[in-house]
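Thread title: Can someone regenerate the structure for this chain?

I was given the following input by a collaborator and told the matching structure tokens would be attached. They weren't. Posting the sequence so someone can regenerate them.
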Amino acid sequence: ALGARELAGGVRRPLMVHLSTLSRTAAGSRATRIAVAGDGAGALGARTAAAAAATRRLGSERGRAGTRTMSPPRAGDKTLGTLSWEKTFTEELPGEPGGVDPSPRQVHSAFWSATEPTDGSGKPAHLIAYSREATALLDLDESQCTTSDFAQFFGGKSLLDLKDLRPFAQNYGGHQFGHWAGQLGDGRAMTLGEVVNSRGERWEVQLKGAGLTPYSRRADGRAVLRSSVREFLCSEAMFHLGVPTTRASSLVGTGDGVYRDMFYNGNVKLEKGAVVCRLAPSFVRFGTFQLPAVRGEDETPMVRKLADYVIKHHFPEAEAGGAEEPGSKYERMYQKVVEDSAKLVVEWQGCGVVHGGLNTDN
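Best answer:
Regenerated them for you:
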């Protein structure tokens, strides 16, 4: 709806899309501005104007229904070199010994494996779009978003010699469509680190489509532009509809060619490669707990270790309660997860999302 066709194929120059919430009244209504520059701007502008009007109408309706309101974060003054990076996941949880090795394998007794983005062609990356609100979550100065370093960094071409980064791919399992699938892991995503902003919020910064990891299996670790456009636009749209979601801060074209069989009919074509930068307080999944639990024996204690980590950084309220029985904090975390998951599904269905399989690796 927001010009996906223009982004994916019809634009001859980089297209800049700013999804900016300018105001939310006490009643919960939203006013959304989308500024566009580049070839195809007229067609995209017309579509986005209609989308913005629909968003305002929906926001007003949801506001009357009692949807909570929040102020959008203000842009910060950080550069890529001065972001406040941390790496609690790799420092506090066991990882796979050794250095970077993207060869596929079963990884035991570890929640993560070291990895790094790989350049697929040697061509420079180019910025396609960024979300003003999402980049503000990192306290990043908006002027940074149009620099070459921004495109190369978030396109997985160069880590800019930033010493506080420790890229990794997470190890997890999962149920897919009702069946246990065993080890899955981040096959085409890798976390660069965690940024703690001026509001004390922790945001894990992840690149999707930046190359092979030990969990890529028979795939190439890449992403194509058409699917990346969908994720970028839908992530930010879901947020502005009031639905809990991962955020998408940027969409970068890699200049790489990626082979895909779009319709799974044997007709493989070369497509444009892209990388989406995703943000979330954490990318721990149900499957992160499931894998060591299912494997049992020496890996069973990892479940408690992971729960302690998640409670410490993401469910501090579960620590409350004083001198209660030792397991009570886990029960409180579990209850909160159950409630939040139920609310999430309600929000999805309220937006018309119908999905029969809530896969635990997602």
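Confidence is low (pLDDT under 50) at residues 1-69.
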